[in-house]
Structure prediction request, 323 residues.
Amino acid sequence: MLIYSNATNRQVSEFAADVCAGLTKSGQRELPSKYLYDGLGSVLFEAICALPEYGLTRADARLLQKHAAEIVGRLPGTVQVAELGSGSGKKTRWILEALSQRQKTYYYPIEISPSALAACEKELGQIDLISVVGYEETYLEGLRSVARNRNEGESLLVLFLGSTIGNFDRDAAERFLWEVRDTLLQGDALLLGTDLMKDVDTQILAYADPTGVTSAFNLNLLGRINRELGANFDLSRFRHEVLWNADHRRIEMHLRSLSQQYVEIPAAGFAIALNEDETIWTESSHKYYPQEVVRMAEKAGFHCDGQWIDREWPFAQNLLFVQ
Ligand code: AVI
Prediction:
């Protein structure tokens, strides 16, 4: 697979700066959830997707398997596909196979993790009439590169699956959709996967699985800071915690400090003293009502052409066209 990479040491210093900003913040300390996905974190996330308690990925895939032909049938002309945060690319197969029935297609996965790009190529590189060209960049940088290099008359289908949009705060999600819209042209589309509201116990269990995979995924963030920034977090002195924030309709993941402790992070040039019971907030996962997604899309300059909902695990695929 051809991979365009912009990765530099800049990424290490950005990581150090973000860790420093989040952990020294007054009030609630936090770490950006995008850093959960190093090599080990990506493997753990794949394991989460297989957990019986985490129905989100299976619902996403079921909808794509069932409706890919109809979704692709709604796209005009010759279509190229870009995916934001491709992960392993498994669910994308249904869309690419449906498209390959009618045309040769370029597929551009955009991912900052080189191991995820490689897994994606392995999964999807063998489909007839599909060429995979990976972009090792952030979502918007990658999407701008893809949009710049497209041929006259081709339209773009952007995939943003798995409810990754839910990991943004609601305002940031709307701004992000605006920026995506800004890189697109009339006739282009965004297929957006969104996890929907469901009963609170089911939601909590999906992130507090009894097997402990999500706990390992969360704790690995501290392990990553140890490995990459030379820190001395003792992972056994933290506990994975999950709570439902009803005001914001989101699951929050935290790491609770089990004792008073002092942690040094040399490559980021600082140290912190954590109190017993203090938490570090590591991720939010917002849940939506179907109509809310339609409204959010409209505010960002799209119109919703179709919405498909899984009844087993409430989740929606939303096909949005540039307005
Ligand atoms: C990637 N993202 C949509 C997942 C979610 O459900 O928010 C990440 C995740 N965190 C814990 N489990 C899964």
Remarks:
- The longest strand covers residues 302-310.
